[in-house]
Design a protein that fits this description.
The protein is built from 8 helices and 7 strands; from the N terminus they run E-H-E-H-E-H-E-H-E-E-H-E-H-H-H. It is an alpha/beta fold and 215 residues long. The protein has a single domain, classed as Spore Coat Polysaccharide Biosynthesis Protein SpsA, Chain A, CATH 3.90.550.10. Strands 3-2-1-4-6-5-7 form a 7-stranded mixed sheet, sandwiched between helices.
Length: 215
Amino acid sequence: MRWTLVIPLKPLARAKSRLADTAGDGLRPGLALAFAQDTVAAALACAAVRDVAVVTDDALAGRELAALGARIVTDEPPGGLNVALAHGSSAVRARTPESAVAALNADLPALRPPELARVLEAAAEFPRAFLPDAAAIGTTLLAAIPGRELLPAFGTDSRARHRSSGAMELRLAGVDSVRQDVDTGDDLRAALALGVGPRTAALAAHLLIPEQPNG
């Protein structure tokens, strides 16, 4: 089974506010774009992925991600992350009704295509399935096979919310790059330890990333 990934991306100027301790206001938009570029490039290199649809209203991000090969879906009507994902999924299914669809976070700069392929292969065994994030609180991927609605429930405690919605939780070892999203300086350190894509690496080289306190 090959998948269409739906990747949501908010306007870059408002992205990654929780990285304020690591990157200033002038740097965070560039980091958010770099995360998304490395995520999309890795996703498109995955053998299990047919194509990628990015849901965004940001003109710069749209141009840069389209140049990588992503299809851009306008984020309408505006209504937050889950509305954007439902809209993106509907747009994908309107074009190819029998698509297997998976929502993927845009902030997975360490993403490795073989690990993503393993997650999608496991997800194909269930009508709906999800992968928890590295913190075991949120979600980085939510998948629905052909004929099933995505029903995204991202946001606070999305791991519990997706599990309550009937989606199967995927418990896989060795897929850290698919679980390591980046919201905070600690997250960025963890992603850098895994090995990030070239765009994130280039920007992160100019950051002074504070050490995590002991204890």
